[in-house]
Amino acid sequence: MSEESRTALPLVFEQPRGRKKPPRHLADLTPEERTALAAELGEPAFRLKQVAHHYFAKLERDPAAMTDLPAASRDAIVEAALPELLHSVRVMEADRGTTRKTLWRLFDGALVESVLMRYSDRATLCVSSQAGCGMACPFCATGQGGLQRNMSTGEIIDQVVDGAAAMANGLVPGGPGRLSNIVFMGMGEPMANYKAVIGAIRRMVAPAPDGLGLSARNITLSTVGLVPRIRQLTDEGIPVTLALSLHAPDDELRNELVPINTRFSVHEAVEAAWDYARVTRRRVSIEYAMMRDINDQAWRADLLGDVLNAYGDWGWVHVNLIPLNPTPGSKWTASRREDEREFVRRLEAKGIPTTVRDTRGSDIDGACGQLAAAE
Protein backbone atom coordinates (compact mmCIF):
# COMPACT_ATOMS: atom_id res chain seq x y z
CA MET A 1 0.00 0.00 0.00
CA SER A 2 1.40 3.41 -0.95
CA GLU A 3 2.03 6.16 1.59
CA GLU A 4 -0.54 8.33 -0.19
CA SER A 5 -3.28 5.70 0.11
CA ARG A 6 -2.41 5.07 3.74
CA THR A 7 -2.68 8.78 4.52
CA ALA A 8 -6.00 9.06 2.69
CA LEU A 9 -7.55 6.24 4.69
CA PRO A 10 -9.26 7.23 7.94
CA LEU A 11 -7.24 6.04 10.89
CA VAL A 12 -8.66 3.07 12.73
CA PHE A 13 -10.27 3.48 16.13
CA GLU A 14 -11.48 7.01 15.41
CA GLN A 15 -14.02 8.71 17.66
CA PRO A 16 -17.45 7.05 17.72
CA ARG A 17 -20.04 9.09 15.88
CA GLY A 18 -22.99 10.79 17.52
CA ARG A 19 -21.11 12.09 20.58
CA LYS A 20 -21.99 15.58 21.77
CA LYS A 21 -19.16 18.07 21.53
CA PRO A 22 -17.74 19.72 24.65
CA PRO A 23 -18.81 23.32 25.30
CA ARG A 24 -16.96 25.93 23.25
CA HIS A 25 -14.03 27.28 25.26
CA LEU A 26 -11.63 30.18 24.92
CA ALA A 27 -8.76 27.75 24.30
CA ASP A 28 -10.61 26.29 21.30
CA LEU A 29 -10.93 29.64 19.56
CA THR A 30 -8.71 31.42 17.06
CA PRO A 31 -8.25 35.19 17.53
CA GLU A 32 -10.90 35.75 14.86
CA GLU A 33 -13.32 33.40 16.62
CA ARG A 34 -12.72 35.22 19.91
CA THR A 35 -13.69 38.48 18.21
CA ALA A 36 -16.83 36.84 16.89
CA LEU A 37 -17.73 35.55 20.36
CA ALA A 38 -17.31 39.02 21.82
CA ALA A 39 -19.69 40.35 19.18
CA GLU A 40 -22.22 37.63 20.08
CA LEU A 41 -22.05 38.84 23.67
CA GLY A 42 -22.40 42.48 22.63
CA GLU A 43 -18.96 43.26 24.03
CA PRO A 44 -15.88 44.89 22.48
CA ALA A 45 -13.20 42.46 21.23
CA PHE A 46 -10.74 43.45 23.94
CA ARG A 47 -13.02 41.88 26.60
CA LEU A 48 -12.03 38.42 25.39
CA LYS A 49 -8.39 39.47 25.47
CA GLN A 50 -8.87 40.44 29.11
CA VAL A 51 -10.39 37.02 29.85
CA ALA A 52 -7.51 35.35 28.00
CA HIS A 53 -5.02 37.27 30.13
CA HIS A 54 -6.69 36.01 33.31
CA TYR A 55 -6.83 32.43 32.06
CA PHE A 56 -3.46 32.00 30.36
CA ALA A 57 -1.27 34.47 32.26
CA LYS A 58 -2.83 34.48 35.73
CA LEU A 59 -4.20 30.91 35.57
CA GLU A 60 -7.47 32.27 36.92
CA ARG A 61 -10.97 31.00 36.16
CA ASP A 62 -13.00 32.65 38.92
CA PRO A 63 -15.13 35.56 37.62
CA ALA A 64 -14.89 37.29 41.00
CA ALA A 65 -11.16 37.76 40.45
CA MET A 66 -11.64 39.42 37.04
CA THR A 67 -12.40 42.87 38.38
CA ASP A 68 -11.33 44.56 35.14
CA LEU A 69 -14.48 43.18 33.49
CA PRO A 70 -17.73 45.16 33.88
CA ALA A 71 -19.59 43.83 36.92
CA ALA A 72 -22.94 43.75 35.11
CA SER A 73 -21.77 41.36 32.39
CA ARG A 74 -18.78 39.68 34.04
CA ASP A 75 -20.49 36.38 34.84
CA ALA A 76 -22.01 36.10 31.36
CA ILE A 77 -18.68 36.82 29.64
CA VAL A 78 -16.78 34.28 31.72
CA GLU A 79 -19.51 31.65 31.42
CA ALA A 80 -19.42 31.97 27.63
CA ALA A 81 -15.61 32.01 27.33
CA LEU A 82 -14.60 29.69 30.17
CA PRO A 83 -17.31 27.06 30.68
CA GLU A 84 -16.43 24.36 33.19
CA LEU A 85 -14.87 21.51 31.22
CA LEU A 86 -13.32 19.43 33.99
CA HIS A 87 -14.82 18.48 37.34
CA SER A 88 -12.41 17.02 39.86
CA VAL A 89 -13.70 13.68 41.14
CA ARG A 90 -10.70 12.66 43.17
CA VAL A 91 -7.13 13.80 43.86
CA MET A 92 -4.63 11.24 45.12
CA GLU A 93 -1.11 11.99 46.31
CA ALA A 94 2.09 9.97 46.52
CA ASP A 95 5.81 10.61 47.00
CA ARG A 96 5.13 12.92 49.95
CA GLY A 97 2.71 14.99 47.95
CA THR A 98 5.02 15.69 45.02
CA THR A 99 2.97 13.37 42.79
CA ARG A 100 -0.68 14.38 42.38
CA LYS A 101 -3.04 12.29 40.30
CA THR A 102 -6.40 13.84 39.45
CA LEU A 103 -9.44 11.99 38.14
CA TRP A 104 -11.59 14.33 36.07
CA ARG A 105 -15.20 13.96 34.99
CA LEU A 106 -15.94 15.62 31.65
CA PHE A 107 -19.22 17.32 30.71
CA ASP A 108 -20.70 14.06 29.38
CA GLY A 109 -19.61 11.89 32.30
CA ALA A 110 -16.45 10.52 30.65
CA LEU A 111 -13.49 10.06 33.00
CA VAL A 112 -9.88 11.03 32.30
CA GLU A 113 -6.73 11.41 34.38
CA SER A 114 -3.78 13.75 34.66
CA VAL A 115 -0.68 13.44 36.83
CA LEU A 116 1.47 16.27 38.16
CA MET A 117 4.99 15.27 39.21
CA ARG A 118 7.40 17.67 40.88
CA TYR A 119 11.12 16.95 40.77
CA SER A 120 14.05 18.94 42.10
CA ASP A 121 14.69 20.61 38.74
CA ARG A 122 11.31 20.58 36.99
CA ALA A 123 7.58 19.99 37.28
CA THR A 124 5.98 17.71 34.71
CA LEU A 125 2.31 17.24 33.91
CA CYS A 126 1.12 14.09 32.16
CA VAL A 127 -2.08 14.89 30.26
CA SER A 128 -4.81 12.85 28.61
CA SER A 129 -5.90 13.50 25.03
CA GLN A 130 -8.80 11.05 24.72
CA ALA A 131 -11.40 9.56 27.04
CA GLY A 132 -10.31 5.96 26.78
CA CYS A 133 -8.18 4.66 23.92
CA GLY A 134 -8.83 2.65 20.81
CA MET A 135 -5.34 1.22 20.33
CA ALA A 136 -6.21 -1.94 22.33
CA CYS A 137 -2.72 -2.64 23.67
CA PRO A 138 -3.37 -5.63 25.97
CA PHE A 139 -1.02 -4.56 28.79
CA CYS A 140 -2.54 -1.07 29.09
CA ALA A 141 -5.44 -0.34 31.46
CA THR A 142 -6.77 2.44 29.25
CA GLY A 143 -6.60 0.35 26.11
CA GLN A 144 -8.73 -2.37 27.64
CA GLY A 145 -11.60 0.07 28.16
CA GLY A 146 -11.84 1.12 24.51
CA LEU A 147 -12.31 4.60 23.11
CA GLN A 148 -15.17 6.79 24.30
CA ARG A 149 -14.30 10.02 22.50
CA ASN A 150 -11.64 12.54 21.60
CA MET A 151 -11.01 15.41 23.96
CA SER A 152 -11.21 18.99 22.75
CA THR A 153 -8.31 21.42 22.71
CA GLY A 154 -9.98 23.24 25.60
CA GLU A 155 -10.25 20.06 27.69
CA ILE A 156 -6.57 19.30 27.13
CA ILE A 157 -5.50 22.85 27.95
CA ASP A 158 -7.68 22.99 31.07
CA GLN A 159 -5.64 20.11 32.53
CA VAL A 160 -2.50 22.16 31.94
CA VAL A 161 -3.93 25.34 33.45
CA ASP A 162 -4.98 23.38 36.54
CA GLY A 163 -1.48 21.88 36.91
CA ALA A 164 0.20 25.23 36.35
CA ALA A 165 -2.09 26.86 38.94
CA ALA A 166 -1.34 24.08 41.46
CA MET A 167 2.37 24.81 41.06
CA ALA A 168 1.99 28.61 41.12
CA ASN A 169 -0.24 28.53 44.20
CA GLY A 170 2.09 26.28 46.19
CA LEU A 171 -0.28 23.31 46.35
CA VAL A 172 2.64 20.93 45.72
CA PRO A 173 5.30 20.59 48.46
CA GLY A 174 8.33 22.75 47.76
CA GLY A 175 6.63 26.12 47.62
CA PRO A 176 5.27 28.06 44.65
CA GLY A 177 6.89 27.07 41.38
CA ARG A 178 6.39 26.84 37.64
CA LEU A 179 5.04 24.04 35.51
CA SER A 180 7.84 23.41 33.03
CA ASN A 181 7.18 20.14 31.15
CA ILE A 182 4.18 18.52 29.45
CA VAL A 183 4.01 14.89 28.36
CA PHE A 184 1.16 13.51 26.27
CA MET A 185 1.35 10.12 27.94
CA GLY A 186 -1.97 10.04 29.75
CA MET A 187 -5.13 8.38 28.49
CA GLY A 188 -5.54 8.08 24.74
CA GLU A 189 -3.43 8.02 21.58
CA PRO A 190 -2.58 11.67 20.92
CA MET A 191 -1.95 11.19 17.20
CA ALA A 192 -5.48 9.77 16.79
CA ASN A 193 -6.79 13.14 18.02
CA TYR A 194 -4.30 15.09 15.97
CA LYS A 195 -6.14 18.35 15.30
CA ALA A 196 -7.10 18.99 18.94
CA VAL A 197 -3.67 17.94 20.23
CA ILE A 198 -1.78 20.20 17.84
CA GLY A 199 -4.20 23.00 18.72
CA ALA A 200 -3.43 22.44 22.40
CA ILE A 201 0.33 22.46 21.78
CA ARG A 202 0.03 25.73 19.89
CA ARG A 203 -1.87 27.22 22.85
CA MET A 204 0.78 25.91 25.23
CA VAL A 205 3.68 27.56 23.40
CA ALA A 206 1.99 30.82 22.39
CA PRO A 207 2.93 33.74 24.65
CA ALA A 208 0.25 35.18 26.93
CA PRO A 209 -2.46 36.30 26.48
CA ASP A 210 -2.84 33.87 23.57
CA GLY A 211 -1.28 30.92 25.37
CA LEU A 212 0.76 29.65 28.28
CA GLY A 213 4.24 30.53 27.04
CA LEU A 214 5.75 27.07 27.56
CA SER A 215 8.77 25.86 25.59
CA ALA A 216 7.97 23.45 22.76
CA ARG A 217 11.19 21.64 23.59
CA ASN A 218 9.71 20.76 26.97
CA ILE A 219 6.64 19.12 25.44
CA THR A 220 6.74 15.40 24.65
CA LEU A 221 4.21 13.94 22.23
CA SER A 222 3.85 10.18 22.46
CA THR A 223 2.46 7.81 19.85
CA VAL A 224 2.21 4.07 19.27
CA GLY A 225 3.22 4.71 15.68
CA LEU A 226 0.55 6.34 13.51
CA VAL A 227 2.96 6.90 10.64
CA PRO A 228 0.94 9.44 8.57
CA ARG A 229 0.53 11.61 11.65
CA ILE A 230 4.24 11.39 12.54
CA ARG A 231 5.01 12.61 9.03
CA GLN A 232 2.43 15.38 9.41
CA LEU A 233 4.05 16.44 12.69
CA THR A 234 7.41 16.59 10.93
CA ASP A 235 6.04 19.40 8.76
CA GLU A 236 4.35 21.37 11.57
CA GLY A 237 7.44 23.35 12.54
CA ILE A 238 6.87 22.80 16.27
CA PRO A 239 10.06 21.38 17.88
CA VAL A 240 8.38 19.07 20.39
CA THR A 241 10.02 15.83 21.49
CA LEU A 242 8.58 12.81 19.71
CA ALA A 243 8.24 9.63 21.78
CA LEU A 244 7.57 6.40 19.91
CA SER A 245 6.03 3.69 22.08
CA LEU A 246 7.71 0.71 20.44
CA HIS A 247 7.68 -2.00 23.15
CA ALA A 248 9.12 -4.64 20.80
CA PRO A 249 11.77 -4.61 18.05
CA ASP A 250 10.18 -7.37 15.94
CA ASP A 251 6.85 -7.37 14.12
CA GLU A 252 5.78 -10.78 15.42
CA LEU A 253 5.71 -9.65 19.05
CA ARG A 254 4.73 -6.05 18.37
CA ASN A 255 1.66 -7.22 16.44
CA GLU A 256 0.49 -8.72 19.74
CA LEU A 257 1.55 -5.91 22.07
CA VAL A 258 0.64 -2.95 19.84
CA PRO A 259 -2.08 -4.05 17.38
CA ILE A 260 -1.66 -0.96 15.15
CA ASN A 261 1.64 -2.59 14.14
CA THR A 262 -0.31 -4.81 11.76
CA ARG A 263 -0.94 -1.62 9.80
CA PHE A 264 2.30 0.30 10.39
CA SER A 265 5.25 -2.05 10.98
CA VAL A 266 8.26 -1.61 13.24
CA HIS A 267 10.33 -0.54 10.24
CA GLU A 268 7.75 2.01 9.06
CA ALA A 269 7.26 3.50 12.55
CA VAL A 270 11.00 3.75 13.27
CA GLU A 271 11.71 5.17 9.83
CA ALA A 272 9.06 7.89 10.33
CA ALA A 273 10.59 8.69 13.74
CA TRP A 274 14.04 8.86 12.17
CA ASP A 275 12.75 11.26 9.51
CA TYR A 276 11.29 13.44 12.28
CA ALA A 277 14.68 13.54 14.00
CA ARG A 278 16.50 14.18 10.72
CA VAL A 279 14.29 17.13 9.75
CA THR A 280 13.87 18.73 13.18
CA ARG A 281 17.26 17.75 14.67
CA ARG A 282 15.32 16.77 17.78
CA ARG A 283 16.29 13.51 19.44
CA VAL A 284 13.50 10.94 19.48
CA SER A 285 12.65 8.91 22.58
CA ILE A 286 11.85 5.22 22.16
CA GLU A 287 9.47 4.13 24.91
CA TYR A 288 9.78 0.47 25.85
CA ALA A 289 7.66 -1.03 28.64
CA MET A 290 9.62 -3.88 30.17
CA MET A 291 7.47 -7.01 30.59
CA ARG A 292 8.78 -10.10 32.28
CA ASP A 293 9.62 -12.93 29.85
CA ILE A 294 7.66 -11.16 27.10
CA ASN A 295 9.91 -8.51 25.57
CA ASP A 296 12.86 -8.29 27.95
CA GLN A 297 15.12 -11.02 26.56
CA ALA A 298 18.75 -10.09 25.91
CA TRP A 299 18.46 -10.98 22.22
CA ARG A 300 15.63 -8.50 21.85
CA ALA A 301 17.85 -5.79 23.33
CA ASP A 302 20.44 -6.63 20.67
CA LEU A 303 17.78 -6.56 17.96
CA LEU A 304 16.42 -3.23 19.18
CA GLY A 305 19.92 -1.78 19.05
CA ASP A 306 20.38 -3.05 15.49
CA VAL A 307 17.00 -1.68 14.38
CA LEU A 308 17.80 1.80 15.73
CA ASN A 309 21.39 1.80 14.49
CA ALA A 310 20.17 1.08 10.96
CA TYR A 311 19.40 4.81 10.82
CA GLY A 312 21.79 7.75 11.39
CA ASP A 313 24.69 7.65 13.80
CA TRP A 314 24.48 11.19 15.20
CA GLY A 315 22.70 10.23 18.41
CA TRP A 316 19.22 10.68 16.98
CA VAL A 317 17.56 8.37 19.46
CA HIS A 318 17.34 7.59 23.16
CA VAL A 319 15.69 4.53 24.70
CA ASN A 320 13.53 5.01 27.76
CA LEU A 321 12.82 1.69 29.49
CA ILE A 322 9.63 1.72 31.56
CA PRO A 323 9.18 -0.74 34.43
CA LEU A 324 5.65 -1.98 33.80
CA ASN A 325 3.08 -0.82 36.33
CA PRO A 326 0.81 -3.89 36.21
CA THR A 327 -2.95 -3.63 36.31
CA PRO A 328 -4.90 -5.80 38.78
CA GLY A 329 -5.45 -9.33 37.54
CA SER A 330 -3.21 -8.85 34.51
CA LYS A 331 -0.75 -11.49 33.30
CA TRP A 332 1.62 -8.68 32.32
CA THR A 333 4.15 -7.87 35.02
CA ALA A 334 7.41 -5.96 35.44
CA SER A 335 10.74 -7.41 34.39
CA ARG A 336 13.26 -8.75 36.88
CA ARG A 337 15.86 -6.19 37.85
CA GLU A 338 18.69 -8.36 36.54
CA ASP A 339 16.98 -8.65 33.14
CA GLU A 340 16.40 -4.91 33.11
CA ARG A 341 20.08 -4.25 33.84
CA GLU A 342 21.20 -6.65 31.11
CA PHE A 343 18.85 -4.97 28.63
CA VAL A 344 20.43 -1.62 29.43
CA ARG A 345 23.94 -3.07 29.13
CA ARG A 346 23.23 -4.59 25.72
CA LEU A 347 21.78 -1.36 24.32
CA GLU A 348 24.61 0.77 25.67
CA ALA A 349 27.12 -1.68 24.19
CA LYS A 350 25.60 -0.83 20.82
CA GLY A 351 25.96 2.89 21.48
CA ILE A 352 22.30 3.56 22.27
CA PRO A 353 21.80 5.97 25.20
CA THR A 354 19.39 4.23 27.58
CA THR A 355 17.68 5.17 30.81
CA VAL A 356 15.14 3.50 33.08
CA ARG A 357 12.17 5.70 33.88
CA ASP A 358 11.70 6.81 37.45
CA THR A 359 8.39 5.21 38.42
CA ARG A 360 6.04 7.32 40.48
CA GLY A 361 2.58 6.88 41.92
CA SER A 362 2.55 3.08 42.05
CA ASP A 363 0.56 3.28 45.29
CA ILE A 364 -2.17 5.48 43.78
CA ASP A 365 -3.17 3.33 40.78
CA GLY A 366 -0.22 4.75 38.91
CA ALA A 367 -0.75 3.04 35.57
CA CYS A 368 -2.78 5.36 33.38
CA GLY A 369 -6.41 4.33 33.27
CA GLN A 370 -6.44 2.40 36.55
CA LEU A 371 -8.11 5.15 38.54
CA ALA A 372 -10.78 5.75 35.91
CA ALA A 373 -11.40 2.01 35.61
CA ALA A 374 -11.78 1.70 39.37
CA GLU A 375 -14.26 4.57 39.44
Automatic annotation (TrEMBL):
Region (Disordered): 1-26
Domain Radical SAM core: 119-363
Binding site for [4Fe-4S] cluster: C133, C137, C140
Cofactor dependency: [4Fe-4S] cluster
Subcellular location: Cytoplasm
Pfam families on file: Radical_SAM (PF04055)
Binding site for S-adenosyl-L-methionine: G188, E189, S222, S245, L246, H247, N325
Cofactor comment: Binds 1 [4Fe-4S] cluster. The cluster is coordinated with 3 cysteines and an exchangeable S-adenosyl-L-methionine.
Keywords: 4Fe-4S, Cytoplasm, Disulfide bond, Iron, Iron-sulfur, Metal-binding, Methyltransferase, rRNA processing, S-adenosyl-L-methionine, Transferase, tRNA processing
InterPro entries on file: Aldolase_TIM, Methyltransferase_A, RNA_MTrfase_RlmN, rRNA_lsu_MTrfase_RlmN/Cfr, rSAM, rSAM_sf
The reaction(s) this protein catalyses: adenosine(2503) in 23S rRNA + 2 reduced [2Fe-2S]-[ferredoxin] + 2 S-adenosyl-L-methionine = 2-methyladenosine(2503) in 23S rRNA + 5'-deoxyadenosine + L-methionine + 2 oxidized [2Fe-2S]-[ferredoxin] + S-adenosyl-L-homocysteine; adenosine(37) in tRNA + 2 reduced [2Fe-2S]-[ferredoxin] + 2 S-adenosyl-L-methionine = 2-methyladenosine(37) in tRNA + 5'-deoxyadenosine + L-methionine + 2 oxidized [2Fe-2S]-[ferredoxin] + S-adenosyl-L-homocysteine
Annotated SUPFAM superfamilies: Radical SAM enzymes (SSF102114)
Active site location: E113 (proton acceptor), C368 (s-methylcysteine intermediate)
Domain of life assignment: Bacteria
Broad class of the protein's primary localization: cytoplasm
EC number: 2.1.1.192
Family: Belongs to the radical SAM superfamily. RlmN family.
Function: Specifically methylates position 2 of adenine 2503 in 23S rRNA and position 2 of adenine 37 in tRNAs.
Miscellaneous field: Reaction proceeds by a ping-pong mechanism involving intermediate methylation of a conserved cysteine residue.
Protein name: Probable dual-specificity RNA methyltransferase RlmN
Species in which this protein is naturally found: Aeromicrobium halocynthiae
Name of the coding gene: rlmN
